[in-house]
Structures are given as structure tokens and as C-alpha cells.
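Note on ligand handling. Small-molecule inputs were canonicalized before submission; formal charges were left as drawn, and no protonation-state enumeration was performed. Where a ligand contained multiple stereocentres, the stereochemistry in the source SMILES was retained. For zinc ion, this procedure yielded the string shown in the input block below.
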Amino acid sequence: MPLVPMRPLLDAAKEGGYGVAALNVNNMEQIQAIMEAAVETKSPVIVQASRGARKYANDNYLRHLMIAASELHPDLPIVMHQDHGNSVETCKSAIEYGFTSVMMDGSLMPDGKTPSDFEYNVKVTSEIVKYAHERGVTVEGEIGTIGGIEDGHGSGGKGHLTDPDQAVEFVERTGVDALAVAIGTSHGAYKFSRKPDGEVLAMSLIEEIHRRLPNTHLVMHGSSSVPQELIEIINKYGGKMKPTWGVPVEEIQRGIRHGVRKINVDTDNRLAITGAIRKVFVESPEKFDPRDYLVPAREAMKAVCVARMTAFGQAGHAFDRKWPTLADMAKYYASGGK
Ligand SMILES: [Zn+2]
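Structure output:
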């Protein structure tokens, strides 16, 4: 099966009452880790690449790695998503390179740092929705700004929580398929400086947005859980990470009960990979074949992916239906489907 658009996966997740992890990739080992986890758990797959990843890996390498994944696993639905497209050009070039879903992040200006205004966000997002939907490609927008910085993208600081009235107007005017909401999460490893106690996320905000936009799939960014055991492994083998906590998996599961369908996870996989590599370097300093540390790194990332796919509920849902193609979705949007 060729790469599929994201919308049908999120529609299925809505019907089934589960969420789907969107996992970031930069290289072959990360794609392999995700695919191995998906095969083991029979999960639909959302792989996403940031602008930083596209630059690091090169669009052609990334594209062919994704094609390899779909050739090796023709029975699994696989989405290739542009994470935080900073401009219309970035999203269009992603679509040209075969991405089946894009995020147009118009909450920030094209520099990926400066908060934009609402009208700018509506304008650029609408432009991409038109371009993408003609090609069957899914679009995620963002309203409110998520704190922190990742891959050079982000407003820094704490961000601004999503205003529900603006969210409703934004969805009506742009026609996005999915909406990233700012509910108190932030990008990167340093989300909370103490162990979160219950109300770490603005759950009432998710509930209100979901009540008013029941047909829009909500997306949680910055949703790594930053497991303490992964931090401990890194620090045990010479790392120097400061104390930090992420979003507990139970909080994400609460979000899933209120319309969250896509959950972005990157940091946890980075931590797992780094811990595994550090361990080999310290325990076997005589080794120099990259496979000696990349194999355990890939295994460690796979374990995180399996855990998230299971916790979010997507496990077991890969074969639930015949997944629509880009052409199917282009027809759907052309016939007035929203
Ligand atoms: Zn994000």
C-alpha cells in the first residue's frame, strides 16, 4: 500500500476512541524502530519529519526510506507528515516530495519564532488547505502557541493557551482536518521542573474545544512523558541531564477521551536512543562498529514506540478497514467533504 493520508487514520481513531502516536524521524534506524513496533503491535503508523529532519536527512533520503517502509510492510497504513511547516512553501515542497499530510503552523511567522496574528494564520492555513485537499493530503493547523523550542522551531517561553472561540472560527474559516491545541505542554525534554501532580494540562480547555468542535481531530504537541528511568540511564552512563518531567501517559489518555487523536512524541525516543548508546560506550569502550551501539539504540526506541502505541490504544487497529488513498480523499474533499 502506498503512503496514506492522515485524515482516515484520525477518523478511524475517533470511531474507535483511541489516539495515534506521531513519531519523529531523522534517519533509517528511527524509521526501522517505528516500523518494528507497528508490526509487533499491529498499529497504524504516523511518521513525521520536522524541517530540521528534512535538512538533516535530505528530502530524497527521507522519501526513499518511507517508500522502503511501505514496500516492506504493504499491509500497514503509513502516513508521512510534515511537522511544523513554517510557511506555505515548506508545506508545498513536502507535498511534492510525497508527504501525505502537512502541518501548516501559522501560529508563528515563517521564522518559526515570532508569534503571528490570527488573520495571518487563517490566510496561510486556508491557502495550504486548498492546495493539499486538491491532492488528497491532510492538513493540521495550530491555534495558540506551544511553549519551548525544538529543532529551532518554537516561540520559546511558556506559549499561549488556545482560545476556544478562536479555535472554532479558525476551523470554520480554514477547513483544517486536525488542530494542534496549546494546553500547557511544551516542546523538548524540559517541560516541568517538578513531578506533575494531576492537573498538569488544561484538560477543561480540551473538553470545551472538543465539545464545540466535535468533528475536528485534536493534536497534542510536546507530549513526551520523559520517563525517569530513561533520564537515569543517561545520567548513570555519564550524561548530565537536569531533573525534568514530561506529560504523564495517564494525562494523555484523559486527552484521548476528549477528542485528542494525534499525539506527538519525539523526546522520549531521543532519550531512549541516547541512553542505549551511552551504555555501550561506557560498558564496552573497545567497540567501534556503529552497529554495536545502533542496534541497542534501535531496540530502545522500539520499546518506547511499543509502549506508546499500546497506551494510546492504536495497537491492533492497523487492519480495521481498507484505508483510503490520496486519490480517494481528493475526491472526498472535491465533493464537499469536510
Ligand atoms: Zn510541535
